[in-house]
Amino acid sequence: LASVEDRPLDETLREPWASRVPGLLDGAFDEDDLPRDPRALFTDAFLTAHDAGEETWLHRALAANSTHDFVPRAPLRVYYGSEDETVTPEDTARAIAAMRAAGADVEGIDVGALDHKDASLEAVPLIRAWFDALTAPE
Known about the structure:
The chain has helices spanning about 15-25, 45-50, 55-65, 90-100, 115-135; strands at about 5, 5-10, 75-80, 105-110. It has about 140 residues and is mainly α. The chain is globular.
């Protein structure tokens, strides 16, 4: 099985997820391929440690990849759907607030009552229009 930080995935993820995750991370998966309850992905041992507040290798890896500590140097727009369950509007608002508190120029754009995938599709032309406006000759 694949591993992260030299730890086997089946130490943290239940089957069939431990075997499937490497293929899911190539960007060619649909979020509907994942269980609705994220806890269904994890082993009982991991969930016991997590619920007890113990730090695991997965917690450390996620903290190292946190976007909440990211401070963009250029203006940033964060597009989101108000029905997104993957990156909730609340998580989006927290990230924006943290970036603003660190001095970043960040704007949140709600593209409507859409889930993660549909919000992404709705945002593409808006992103393009914004980029075009930023690069248009004056």
